[in-house]
Design brief:
Blueprint: E1 5-6, H1 13-20, H2 35-48, E2 52-57, E3 62-67, E4 88-94, H3 102-110, E5 115-121, E6 127-135, E7 147-149, E8 153-154, H4 163-184, E9 189-196, H5 202-216, E10 219-227, H6 239-252, E11 256-259, H7 265-275, E12 278-281, H8 282-293, H9 297-311, H10 319-323, H11 346-381, E13 386-391, H12 397-405, E14 427-433, E15 437-443, H13 453-458, H14 460-464, E16 471-477, H15 483-496, E17 504-509, H16 516-528, E18 533-535, H17 544-557
Parallel strand pairs: 1-3, 4-5, 9-10, 9-11, 11-12, 13-15, 13-16, 16-17, 17-18
Antiparallel strand pairs: 2-3, 2-4, 5-6, 6-7, 6-8, 14-15
Length: 574
């Protein structure tokens, strides 16, 4: 069996033998090649009429021989760390002559080779000029590209360039720059990728992805909106775009690539292998945010359950990621590890561990659901009306709850931050409403379009608590350009929960930040669609009396009327 890689079809035995003999060639360590090796490559390339490539390590040994161009050559599969190069350089012959091709330079950069060299083959099979290029450090001003192309030299001078010294200096400069950047940055640097397949809101989705990344604690250094009518099966955006993103990450010191589309396990692995970057999708980003913000027992259980369900089909090569999911010491899975017989793979053990943990979490959540149901029944026996506050994430629900209940100080104050998903569990506060009396206001987890299926299942029980509401206050960020899309997304989720028929008042929040003309048009369109709207600013305490009156009117129609109610005597606050 031949040790020569690439397209060897049609080659004669003598040609294959000559190619295999290249393995015995040695060059001086730290050099691009030798005049003898250049002559051998040129003659063989002219003989087989194809490009011939050899991969050489820093000790001067030929590690692989390929009948292929740089992209098709047999190269190391693993990518080295960002503070050093791969330790290999590629020397190959161009049978039709010519300088370094785009494919040559692309392979140099993507594989982080020490160097790539191309030998021009002249008409009689003799070696002509040798073209060499090496990488430049991140942020270098030496060249506009990611590499520096050296002046060509005759093949008999191929061994005069000190590649070893160049590589040592380059790696030292890369390492120094890396240390400086690591000391300066305090968060992961992320590049966002949103694919536009023709949606009208692609740019808004990219902005939302940026908000999600910021909430997760990442620093967004670049946003890329990629238009593709048809997605590539393996990488979504294609090899050329991945190369651009890798170059961008190299120069911006980004270590994280976040896709707005959900990635399949194979897609994520292929993109990671091509770019050498950590790759996550929108679903994984949302799960990470929920994991960071989960406070109560139920929220933590639900988040972990969603993470495990997401991780289960992605187990291949996910040992490190699995260890980051915090299974407690009481897990039912803890007894399963190490108790199986020999012959089972780590993958099988991990899958069993996840299955056991999922069963344990589901049982825990059933117990929590029973306790929540008892609380709901208690409220029902007291005949206290419930006002559910719903809306798109970061629309201002928690700020509104604080404003309506005057819960400005701890411990009654509800966390309200300018971040997505600041609230992850339903929070109830008691209040008082003119003409109705005592009411319970419940703040819920923020909605978001295309909520990950695993997370939607995990939080379904929490969202179902909205079903106990007698009226909903649908909080909408009126200052957002995507307000109508957010409204539709919330209505779809309510419809999925069979709650779309509950009476609702739409609170057009953040009116102080909205353009008056746009606010008026939004209010008109929603009212034409049958929605009852009230313009407010929860942060500025504007329009709250109108909102109270609208909610009270709905509850009055549903039979909640305070005995002996008099508008002159009743207090005017919740």
């Amino acid at each position: 069996m031949t040790k020569v890689h690439g397209n060897t079809s049609g080659l004669k035995k003598a040609q294959l033998k000559s190619l295999e003999n290249l393995y015995r060639r040695r060059i001086e360590p730290g050099r691009v090649g030798s005049p003898e090796l250049a002559r051998n490559l040129a003659e063989l390339s002219a003989d087989v009429r194809r490009e011939v490539s050899v991969l050489i390590d820093r000790r001067g040994r030929v590690l692989s021989v390929s009948v292929a161009d740089a992209k098709g050559a047999q190269l190391p599969e693993t990518r080295q760390g960002e503070n050093r190069l791969s330790g290999y350089h590629l020397l190959h012959a161009h049978p039709r002559g010519g300088e370094l091709s785009k494919g040559d330079l692309s392979t140099l950069f993507m594989k982080r080779l020490d160097a790539v060299s191309a030998i021009e083959v002249e008409g009689d099979g003799r070696p002509g000029r040798v073209h060499t290029a090496h990488l430049t450090p991140p942020g270098s001003s030496i060249e506009e590209e990611d590499w520096r192309i050296l002046p060509p030299v005759p093949s008999y001078q191929i061994d005069e360039f000190d590649l070893g010294a160049q590589v040592s200096a380059l790696e030292e400069e890369i390492a120094r720059a890396t240390r400086t950047r690591e000391a300066a940055k305090d968060s992961e640097q992320a590049i966002l990728v949103q694919i536009d397949t023709g949606e009208v809101d692609a740019e808004e989705r990219l902005e939302e992805l940026g908000e999600l990344a910021r909430t997760a604690g990442a620093t967004v250094v670049w946003r890329e909106l990629v238009f593709r009518r048809n997605l590539k099966a393996g990488t979504l955006v294609g090899a050329g775009k991945l190369e651009e993103l890798t170059s961008r990450a190299y120069h911006l010191d980004a270590d994280l690539l976040i896709f707005g589309q959900e990635l399949g396990p194979a897609q994520a692995r292929e993109i990671e292998a091509a770019t050498g970057l950590k790759v996550i999708d929108r679903t994984q980003l949302i799960l990470d945010i929920f994991a960071q913000h989960a406070q109560g027992q139920e929220s933590r259980l639900q988040v972990e359950l969603a993470q495990l369900r997401y991780m289960k089909p992605r187990l291949l090569g996910a040992g490190a990621q699995l260890s980051r999911i915090g299974a407690s010491g009481g897990s039912a899975a803890s007894g399963a590890i190490g108790t199986r017989g020999p012959g089972e793979t780590k993958l099988e053990l991990d899958r069993r561990r996840i299955n056991d943990r999922i069963s344990f979490l589901e049982a825990q959540l059933r117990e929590v659901a029973v306790r929540r149901e008892e609380r709901r029944k208690s409220r029902a026996r007291n005949d206290v009306p419930v006002v559910g506050i719903v809306g798109y994430t970061n629309a201002g629900k928690s700020t509104l709850l604080n404003a309506l209940t005057h819960a400005a100080e701890e411990p009654r104050r509800v966390l309200a931050e300018n971040k997505l998903f600041a609230t992850l569990r339903p929070t109830s506060r008691q209040g008082y409403l003119d003409g109705v009396g005592q009411v319970v206001l419940t703040d819920t987890v923020g909605f978001i379009r295309d909520l990950p299926a695993d997370l939607s299942r995990a939080f379904r029980a929490t969202l179902e608590e909205i079903g106990d509401s007698d009226v909903l206050v649908h909080v909408l960020d009126a200052s957002s350009d995507a307000a109508e899309l957010h409204f539709e997304a919330v209505m779809r989720i309510l419809d999925d929960l069979d709650l779309a028929d509950l009476p609702a008042v739409v609170a057009l929040n953040k009116a102080d930040r909205a353009r008056p003309a746009e606010l008026a048009r939004l209010q008109e369109r929603l009212e034409q669609a049958g929605a009852q709207t009230v313009v407010i600013s929860a942060a500025k305490r504007q329009g709250l009396d109108d909102l109270r009156s609208a909610v009270a009117a709905v509850l009055n129609r549903r039979g909640y009327l305070q005995p002996g109610y008099s508008t002159a005597a009743a207090p005017s606050l919740l």
